Structure formats: C-alpha cells, structure tokens
Amino acid sequence: MPLELYGLVYNATTTSLEPGRRPIARGKDEATEEEIYRSSPQLLKLLKSEFAALVVGHKQGDKLCHYLPPKPAKIHSFVYLCPPEEVNEFGQSFDFLNILLNAHLPIPTDELIAATLRQMSQAYEDRRAFLVAAGKELAILLSGNLNQLKAILGRIRI
Amino acid sequence: MTQENQRLGIVVSGSLGKGVEVRLDSSASVEDMVVGRFVTIEGQKRRFFGMITDISLGVTDQKLALTPPDVSDPFIAEVLAGTSTFGTLHVSPSLVIGGDAATMLEGPQPVKTIPSHFSVVRLASQRDVELVFGTEDEKRFFIGTPLDMETKVCLDLEELVKRSNGVFGKSGTGKTFLTRLLLIGMLQKGTAVNLVFDMHSEYGWESRDEHGRRVKALKQLFPSKVAVFTLDEESSRRRRVSTDFVVRIGYDEIETEDIALLRQTLNLTDASVQAVYQLAREFGDKRWIEATLALEEGEETRQLLTRLSIHESTYRNLRRGLETIRRLPFLLPLAPDNTVKRILEYLERGINVILEFGRYTDITAYILVANLLTRRIHAKYREAMEKAIGEDTIPPRQLVITIEEAHRFLNPEVASQTIFGTIAREMRKYNVTMLVVDQRPSGIDGEVMSQMGTKITCLLDNERDVDSVLTGVPNKSELKSVLSKLESKQQALIFGHAVPVPVVVRTREYGSAQSYKEFLSSETEVAKQAEKDIKELWE
Description:
With 158 residues, chain A is an alpha+beta fold.
C-alpha cells in the first residue's frame, strides 16, 4: 500500500553549495536585487535552498493517521504542497498537536504551532471555529503550562 | 429555555454518601444551572435520577486564578471556557429509574450505588420526572411543578396522611396557601377527614392575599364537605361566613393538664401549676375552676390555702391566670352543647371541620381550645380504633388535625405533656395524624420533628430553623444549600415520605377562577368515576 507522509515545514535556509563557504555581500553598485543575479548569473548555480519538515502524520491507503509513519520517507521521494482540501481533512483531528508540542526543534515550538494553525485555518470556511477548537485542544494539552498556552493563543487569535 | 434532554457534562468523581461531581461541558453555561433542578445520569448499566445541589467553578491550573487571562478578548474567553476554566455541578443521585429488573417491575428504586466514571449527565426530561412523581390520579394530588419544567409533581396523599407532616416557612412565604392546597387535595381525594384549628380564619371562608385579591377557601369550594365552626359568631357574621356551629366551652371541660400547658402564656409559676392539681383534688375535676374563682378574700380562704399548703403568692399568681381565661367570652360556666360530640359527628360523616377563632387570635385561647378539643377527640378515636381492632370492624376515618403556631404546643418543654406531642409520636396507629404549620421549626421538639413523615418547607433563613427542619435527612448539607436559595414566593422544598426524592416545586396556582375550576373539575371526575363504579357493581 502506498504511504504518504504529511510534514510541516519548520525551517528554510539558503546556503552555499560547498559546506564551509559563506556567501559574501554583493551588489554595492547595483540598483535592485535582480540586478545582482543579472550581472553574476553563476550565483544561481552556487547557492542552494533547503527546507526542513517535521513529519506529523501519514496516509496509508484511505486511512489518515495523525501519528508517525511506520517507515521514514524514502530518498528522492517527491514533495508536494498540500492542497487546501487535504489540509482541511487533516485538520479534522488535533492529535498532531501533541507531536508538535513534544518536538525538539531549533526554532521556538510556540511559534511553529501558532503559524501552523494560522496557515491551516485558511483552508476552512469558518476560521474562527477552527481556531477555537484548536485552542481548546491546546488548553487541555497545556493545562500545566499556562504561560505557553497564553503565548500561543495570543498568536492565533483573530 | 434549555433544550429538553440537553447534555450537561460528565461524572468525574463522587461517593454514595456525598453525591457525585459533574464537570460541565463547554457547551453548557454554568449560569444556566440552577440548584434544585433534576438531572439524569446515564450509567453503564443503570439510569440514575438526581438533583443539582451545588454549583461551583474550577480551574485546571491554580495559576489561572492568580494571573487571570485577558478574557476581554472573546476568542481567549471562548477557548478557556470548558477547558482550563470549567463549571462543576454537585449532584446527589437519589433514585435508579431504569436499567435493572427491579426498576422495570416496581418503578424507581432508591440508589445503592453510584454511576461509573464519565457517565453522561443530562437534564431530566418531562418523562423522567413523570416516571418519578407519577401522574395525577385518585390518590395523587398535583401540588406544583419542578423548577423550569411543566411536569406535574404529585403527592401521594394516601401515604402523606398516614404520618404527621409539617409545613414550614418564614412569615409571608406562602405557608397558608400551601396548607390550603394540601387541605383541598385531601378533600378532593377523600383520603382523610380534616379538623383545622384556624387561628386567623383563613381556611374556611374567603380571605385576601397580599395583593388584596379575594381568595376563596374550602367552604366555598366544597360546601357539602366542609363545616365551619366558630368561636366568634360576630366576626363570622360580619365576614358573611355561613357557620354551622358556634363553639362554647364550659369550665367543667377544662382539665388540669390544660392549665399546665398554658403555664408559659399565662405566666404561671411551677408552684401555681402544682396548686392546680391540689385544688382539683379538693373541689373535683369538673368544678375546680368555678370553685377557685368563687373563693373570696377572707379567713376561710386563708384556712383552705393553709390546709392545701398553697402559698399566698402562688394563689395570687394562679388566680390572675384563671382570670385571664375567664375573660375569654366563649368560655361559659356551663356549655349549652357538647362541642366535641358535634365535631365527631361531622367527622364521622366525612365532613371536614374548620374551627375559626375570629377575634380570639390570642395564643392563650388558641392553645386552650385546640388542646382541649384535640385531647377529647383523641380519646374517642383511640376508643373507636381499639374497638375496631377488637371487633374486627371498619376503623374510624383517617383524621388529620391541622394546627398553626405549632411551636407553642410542641416546644421541648411542653411537647411531652400536650396531646399534640403524643399524636406526633404515636397516634399514627390510631388513625390520627397532624399537619403542623409553623414559622419557627427550631422551637419544636426534636423528637416530634424527627417523627414527621413529609416536610414541606418554604424559604427559611435562620440557621437553627433550617437545621431543625433538616434533622434526620440523609444528605442534609446538600438540601441546606437548596433550601436557603428558595425564592420567597411560591417555591417550596418537599421531602420525606410522600415523595420519592426531595423536590423543589413552584406551587400550583391558587386564587384564579381557572384554578378553582381545576380543583372542582377533578372533584366531579372522581364523583363521576364513583358513580360509574357503583353502576358497574350492580350490573
């Protein structure tokens, strides 16, 4: 059975192709940023952009699960942007919030959760209802950590 | 208005002794909850029926109480409601109304267990309440409706009259209306015949309510079933009451015990009460009052007193008391007719007797007359009942004696001496019970209070009164919070023998033309049914 993984982008970087080599500042005499690439077209080949995603669920056949998949993603698997319908379907359950809360990431988790919920809410007709429901779930999960709860709620309120 | 069968929350903890805690769902607002309202709990195997007895607020994290979040933002407020901040209900389950074999066959049963964790709690539906309180029929009387519901709460009058009962409440909370309702119920269903000592003349003929509206009373509603006796002919005539009998009492009918009972009201000393017994021995039980009052100042009297070893001051004290009695116009040296006999005649025919006091609302008159008549009626009833047992015949009709200001008769000092104390304790066996109407239940002897079958109480706020009404009730502290939150009008808490669970009712309407019609229509229905039954019997 094909296995589809759902991930949340939590980080994005643009670095030099060669590790250890840092990009230097350019474009002192240029008028716009585009001009820099026009005058030094090699730059496009020397820089790479990467993003990191946290796996929060998967789909095996028709079954949507809000927990980690049995297998990791294969190398060279294709990555697609989740269409709004699928986001909507995935957001029917908030079980994935627990994974997010417990993840050790190089970025503040609160920010990630708030951003995720804000993004996801756009897939819903009634954004407010979605955010309230998510907020209630967070209130239960964070019943012992009021400050964190307050911080997240402050970032998702509309 | 809340939706029928609305889900309120889930059971989170509890015990059989203390009741269960219910955590409210976020969809149910804590402000919509009311103490005294009925709920059902869907256990895994049984359905429970109970009452909300307390409501409180909870938070998952104490920090929330210390640093309250910004609830001016509706989003935050909505998220926190029901999750971090929530309402809890305290429910005391009192009946099992479904699920096991016994309840299927015999109706609601008392609880012997509690629902399991996370059982769903809902508002009780009309059907549930009907299942518990029954519907109006030939022995059940509709007394009022539960809070926020249209269902009828019915009292099982046949059970009610088998024991002594009490109606309590502060002045002006509707005791008289409630008592009138109960009396009408007993008349309508014919479960018992009543003798009412009507201190303020409000049960026999019409009186006015607090808004000055005329309110009909028993004689007007059931003219063929009620006889009005009066102590004060003039007052009755002025109020255009059609009286059936004018009560006069002879000195010979007053016994030594009657004087002992009046000790407090007549301000007699203990020695004076003792002197009464000596005088009665000297002059004879029938004549002693007349003879004592006839004593004149002089050597003879002094000699008599010395012989009986009654001190001069004691004699003065007693004499003053007896003069007070003598001033009561309905007392005559010799009564023209035997009141007790008349009352008993009416009662035997199934006619209810209401004794109006007219102007003599003085407590001395009331205690004297009520005690005197009741003692004799009690003796006759006892005789009749013993005869009925011995000869295996039909026992006398169940008699309910209504007294007001009951704490004067039943306070701990005199309860053991008065006939009312005896009736409250043991006359159930002789088919005589009491309906006690009082505003200071704490003044009533604890032993008497504990023997009362059903208590109906309107608002009481004195701590001692509340305590005394609730003595002997299993979940006292819970009912206490319900009782002290009653509205001051038209609401009453009923608990005890005649209702399966304690219930707060909004009492049935009384005083409008429609309400009179309702009382009477069911009356004729009963009559029609009886006629039909008789016809069928002969067919």
